[in-house]
Write a structure and sequence with these properties.
Helices cover 33% and strands 25% of the residues. It has 102 residues and is of the alpha+beta class. The chain has a domain of 68 residues. Strands 2-3-1-4 form a 4-stranded antiparallel beta sheet.
């Protein structure tokens, strides 16, 4: 299993970010070829008394690194990547990795 994790910093305009993200952007994500599942949350926490370091987190699953690469290299992947500036005022932190299960 290969995962992608996207950590979005607090935006300048949260009232614009969330509705756009939940409708337009997630519609694009759902069209990625080979995506096995995805989830996101705006309920991001931190340690006691600490502010949340991120506004939104997203993760998605792919069968393997090749499937992830193919998805992101596809026209649908280009649309997902190209859409981010439409709602995210600050670049997100993006990591992807192979999952080892115990």
């Amino acid at each position: 299993m290969h995962k992608i994790l996207v950590l979005y910093p607090h935006p300048q305009d949260a009232a614009k970010f969330r509705p756009y993200y939940e409708t337009t952007h997630m519609d694009l994500v759902a069209k990625l070829p080979g995506i096995l599942g995805y989830r996101y949350s705006f309920d991001v926490g931190a340690g006691p008394g600490e502010p949340a370091p991120f506004y939104c987190v997203f993760e998605a699953d792919f069968a393997d690194a090749a499937a992830f690469g193919a998805a992101m290299g596809s026209p649908a992947g280009a649309k997902v990547a190209g859409d981010a500036p439409n709602f995210a005022t600050t670049p997100a932190t993006v990591v992807h990795y192979e999952v080892t299960e115990g």
